[in-house]
Specification:
The protein is α/β, with parallel strands linked by helices and 146 residues long. The protein contains 1 helix and 11 strands. The structure holds copper (II) ion. Copper (II) ion (CU) is lined by residues 98-99, 134-136, 138-139.
Length: 146
């Protein structure tokens, strides 16, 4: 192969990589848009259901199991009793990726849960409706303290 052909071949490979990266970019943007649209439609309703306050365990405060359903957290609305120590136990078999990075800003909580370190503990010492979400805001829900 002479030098000209070498550079031609090299250029072709680089063009190919550029095209591939472009396709990846389009796919990423598409995924992002799908999530954004999905979120804007489902914000504000409780289609994913909620747990009522039958989650109070004697002497242990209240325990809620958090998992994933329909690409969002489940339960989507977590009802907690005011001032009773709460534990949100995250099912790390179902809750994956950035959904494991959970933020509850109102209670200064930001935790990356993992297998073996999958419990978010706090005292819901404010009444009201507060949001929780993953770090990117793709998964989200409400915590209702009453
Ligand atoms: Cu996320």
């Amino acid at each position: 192969m002479d030098l000209d052909h070498f550079y031609l071949a090299k250029m072709k490979i680089e063009l190919g990589i550029g095209k591939l990266l472009g396709i990846f970019g389009v796919i990423l943007i598409a995924i992002f848009l799908i999530f954004a649209v999905k979120n804007s439609f489902s914000k504000g309703d409780n289609v994913n259901g909620s747990i009522v306050n039958d989650n109070i365990v004697n002497g242990e405060g209240q325990v809620v199991d958090l998992t994933v359903k329909d690409y969002n957290y489940y339960p989507n609305t977590i009802n907690l009793a005011y001032n009773v120590p709460a534990k949100i136990v995250v099912d790390t078999d179902k809750v994956k990726g950035c959904f494991q990075n959970i933020a509850i800003p109102e209670f200064n909580i930001r935790k990356l849960v993992r297998q073996g370190d999958n419990v978010i503990s706090f005292i819901p010492n404010k009444k009201g409706t507060f949001s929780f979400s993953c770090s990117m805001g793709m998964g989200f829900g409400k915590i209702v303290v009453s």
